[in-house]
Amino acid sequence: MTLIGATLNTVGLLFLTHAVYSTHEHTATFPHAPLPLDITIELLVSILVLSAGIVFTSPSLKPIVWARWAGRLSREGRHGEGKWTREGEEILSEGDPYAFLGLDGGIGGKREGRLGFWDVRGKRKEYAEWAKNGGKQ
């Protein structure tokens, strides 16, 4: 796939360069005339060929496993990044960058799982119990 992608990138870049040069020549020669259709088609084809070449040469995507990543961040906490300040102090990471969301308190935790989000079913149960007791806590 790398050879096909490199070939498509080269051909697309050549077409794109030629289309840009043709556009420059046309606008320099005929400043008020519209751009010819063949230059427009060449430009669009070059963009498509170049895009296909970029897709073929790009590395394969890796799956994102947020739960594993977030669990590792919460277990490790603050750790060194291997960077140092001018004063000689190590720069520490902040650990979990999403800790402010409060995701660790949900599903079996004491808080609602996400701060800023409302547990509708839990609130309905609380209201039903409150109504059963006649509006008293």
Automatic annotation (TrEMBL):
InterPro entries (UniProt xref): EMC_subunit (IPR053279), MMgT (IPR018937)
Keywords noted in UniProt: Membrane, Transmembrane, Transmembrane helix
Annotated GO biological process: protein folding in endoplasmic reticulum
Record's GO cellular component terms: EMC complex
Compartments where found: Endomembrane system
Keyword Transmembrane helix: yes
Membrane-related topology note: Multi-pass membrane protein
Domain of life from the UniProt record: Eukaryota
Pfam families assigned: MMgT
Segments passing through the bilayer: 43-65
Family to which the UniProt record says this protein belongs: Belongs to the membrane magnesium transporter (TC 1.A.67) family.
Protein name (Swiss-Prot/TrEMBL): Magnesium transporter
Species of the source: Pleomassaria siparia CBS 279.74
